[in-house]
Amino acid sequence: MEYLLAADHVSKKFGKYTALNDLSIAVPKGSVFGLLGPNGAGKTTLIRIINQITAPDEGTVTLAGEPLQQKHILNIGYMPEERGLYKSMKVGEQLLYLAQLKGMSRKEAKEQSEYWFSRLGMSGWWDKKIQELSKGQAQKVQFIVTVLHRPKLLIFDEPFSGFDPINANLIKDEILKLRDEGATIIFSTHRMESVEAMCDHIALINKSNKILDGNLAEIKRNYRSNTFEIGLETQEDTYDAQQQLKVAIMQNIPEKWEVNPASFKTIHDHDLKLKIQMPEGDSANDLLRYLTTKGMVNHFVEVIPSVNEIFIQTISSN
Amino acid sequence: MGKLSLIIKREYKARVSNRSFIVMTFLSPIIAVGMIFLIVYLTQVNQDGQRTIVVVDDSGLFYKDFENTEDINYVDLSPIGLDNAKESVRSNGYFGLLYIPKDVKSKPSTVRFFGSEVPGFSTLDAMEEQIEKKLTDEKLVDRGVDLDMIEESKTLVSINIENFTGERTSKISNWIKAGFGGGAGYLLMMFIIIYGNMVMRSVIEEKTNRIIEVIISSVKPFKLMMGKIIGTTLAGITQFTIWIILGGVLLFALVSFLGIDATSGQVPLGNMAATDLDKIELIILDILKLPLITLAIFFIIYFIGGYFLYSSIYAAIGAAVDSETDTQQFMLPLITPLMLAIYVGFFAVIDNPHGIVAVVFSYIPLTSPIVMLMRIPFGVAWWELLISVGILVASFIFTVWFGSKIYRVGILMYGKKPTYKELMKWLKY
Q1: Which are the contacts of A279, defined by CB distance < 8 A and separation ≥ 6?
Q2: Relative to the CA of A94, which of A33, B45, B301, B417 has its CA 20 to 30 Å away?
Q3: Residue in A14, A53, A101 closest to B414 by CB
Q4: What is the mean pLDDT of residues A243-261?
Q5: Contacts of B8 in chain A (CB under 8 A)
Q6: Which is more confidently placed, B259 or B365?
Q7: Which among B264, B327, B302, B293 is positioned nearest to B389, based on CA atoms?
């Protein structure tokens, strides 16, 4: 796999406080990479090192194989957690200024801004001052500032905070589109559920240390426990029928299968809902075959742990 | 260079399009000119016309000797006696009564003034001077001295200084020479006080707008600082120029509109003694003899250099703090070296332009813009100028560099003091 960005044994201390401890990550080209961890884990420090705002005490960072240099800032788009724009400057001028600082020509910057204005439904904003916009509107401008110069690497620190659901979705789609067009994206967030759906790769950071990283699907495969949520229909749809069915199922169920009650929504009032964990070696088909002898299966889902659950599980097992 | 000029342009635009900047640009000259006229008007109101002072002279020495002035009109009521005169002063509402007793020659302190108000200093002085002169003359005559002889013997000496090539010069020349530096110094100080603050505020701007991280991930703080200093300076020069032009036009318009005689305070040239005219001619010659072109060039160099250095210190302060309220305490200490320079200039440079104090202060970058400008008219070796300007430029660049480091560290600080080792590391980046 080709990696766009690699951090190799990076450490950073502030006084006696260790912000990053011997951390290594590799971000595959063209992927969405999630940098996940609670507040204060060291995510922002790592991002600032990548942006050359600060230097690592030890270790190296390479972009497309080259050690980080001043020229690389042109290839990086960064949306910091602390959003900010010049309040009394007009939106258009501001975009042109910031894009030119990133090495774009004025003409290019103008074309790109117009493209994004029409994409995000912002026509007529050009001559407005930031202080005249709502918070959500200003966030859109901030997003454009980040992507305007078409960087190879995009870094978003808590990208969805401050967006309403509709705009958050809009931005999410735009980010995925940018990835499809070849950009590599790093997400940093402590709200792990918010980017789970988008990330191809993740790194979990806790207390300055990386505790887990890799392909998200692979990680999830490693953390699955062969547990299934099932729902069975009863003909009468009564409480008694439900209990009878449960007894029938428990009667000759394999001993090693662990059965627990489950709760999820179905369209009947009295479906039997269970969570069944099987030992390794037994497959979903074994379970399904067994269940079909007992009744009508209307719900069958493998329980895959969320990143949050994996995170908690990893921390507690360390 | 491209980014720097971008930043300069943005800063300039941001300053110049600021509403309070625009308001002050046009309001200040109006206020200043208004103040001048208010002062002129108030002074005129304060002069409440001619006062009448009654003189009762029992000694008989002063008859007709009191000369009326612009403010005071003397009326001699000696014949009617002190008591009647007092009555007359009261009933006529005169300002007061000056009583000179018979034995004033032997007891000069017995002269008395009666009045409901205490007379001002100038009035008292005028009266005392006249009495003193008359009494002195009287006593001299009593001792057989011929007053005309004294008058004829009076001699005024004014040494005309001449160098070996035969050029004449006046003794005021030293003051003129130092005056140029001093004037430049005051101008510089004024400029720094008005615009240094603006640089500082502009540096704090990125922090209050929280755009600092976006900016720092696009451009080096050194360039940002440099751009801010230059951009703000240009805005300042723009405002200053408008002030001078607008103020000048306003003043001229008002003077001609109100018909105020601006020359009323001056002494007509015709009344001047020939020696005075000679002196003035010498002074003008002195001014023309100054190395004017060199002075002009170095005035520009030191003015810009000095202003840049001071505003870079302001910028560094801005980089170190989070809000403007934290900066007030720094203002006075910053101006102190400038004031010191002006005093050093006027005391040390005039006394001995090439003395150790003058030389040292013309190297120290915080004082050199003023002290060196004062020294230049006295003749300064080119290498001294080179060193002085070199130090000034180097300190400016160093301060900007240092400020930009503080600026970058400022984002990263989590309320902890950086160690020296860390600082060195940051300085590298």
Answers
A1: A226, A256, A257
A2: A33
A3: A14
A4: 86
A5: none
A6: B365
A7: B302
